Amino acid sequence: MLIRHLTLVLGLSFLSAIVHASDSGIEVVGKAAIKAVPDQFSITLEIKQRGVVASKAKAIVDNKSRLVMRELSKIGFEDKAIDSSKIIMFPVYEKPSIVIDNSIAKTRMSDNQKIETPLHVLTSEKNSVVLSYFDVTRTFIIAFDDLAKYDQLLDVVTKVGVSHISSLTMSYKDSEAIYQQALEQALQNAKNKAQTIAKQMNVKLAGLTSLKETGYHAPQAYAMMSEARGFRSSVSEKEVSAQVIANFAIKSN
């Protein structure tokens, strides 16, 4: 009786293990990448000026901004491709290290005579802050689809004297179509992996139980190649990648 009970327990345990394996199925990660040359670009410029009088600092920034717009127009940039709406005027307050304290020293010369002497004493001011200057910044975001304009743009804005030039940002006009190609290949990659595993484990796929899209990558920033005359910048192919996690049910052959 004891032997029959033990055999039954072992049989149920073995059956439970088989069901658990069947329930868990096969989980695979599918990956793929499509290479394409970016065809849409943008760059961010900043013109900064610091001054004690805000209006004077802004006037200098406005003058340089007009020069930038004029020079960009000369090399074929339309106004609609340039966003110059962001301007920041930031007052900077600082804590003075020392202040002058006009104290008076009184000296008694006699019972009926006193002398008052002003003393200029240097003392620390703990809680007082004063307006020191204003920082005025205008930001330009310039979009273009012809990379040949990039070197011309750099030449123009450096002559005007902009304060900051960002890295070149790249993207694709039809980025969704490129990503869909990568996604289709990632799905096929996941299916191929699952079929390979099932074949090696001597089981069959019984259908897809879950699917999750987990990854997307496309180029965002690209460092400036050169600001020197006579050098033409170029862009190589970049990868647009996709990734999925797929779970398949399995069954015995």
Looking at this protein, list some descriptive labels:
253 residues; 33% helix; disordered N terminus; Translation Initiation Factor IF3; SIMPL/DUF541; alpha+beta; three-stranded antiparallel sheet; six-stranded antiparallel sheet; 2 domains; Alpha-Beta Plaits; elongated
Can you describe what's shown?
The chain is α+β, with helices and mostly antiparallel strands. The chain has four helices and eleven strands. Strands 2, 3, 6, 7, 8 and 10 form a six-stranded antiparallel beta sheet that branches. It has a three-stranded antiparallel beta sheet with strand order 1-11-9. Strand 4 and strand 5 form a beta hairpin. Helix 2 runs antiparallel to helix 3.
How many helices? The count is 4
Tell me the distance between the termini: 35 Å
Helix content: 25-40%
What is the SS-derived class?
alpha+beta
CATH topology of the largest domain: Alpha-Beta Plaits
Domain count: the total is 2
Query: What form results from the Cα inertia axes?
Result: elongated
Q: Write down the CATH class of the largest domain.
A: Alpha Beta
Tell me the strand percentage band: 35-45%
Q: Largest sheet, if any?
A: 6 strands, antiparallel
Keywords: Signal
Protein name: DUF541 domain-containing protein
Signal peptide: 1-21
Organism: Thalassotalea piscium
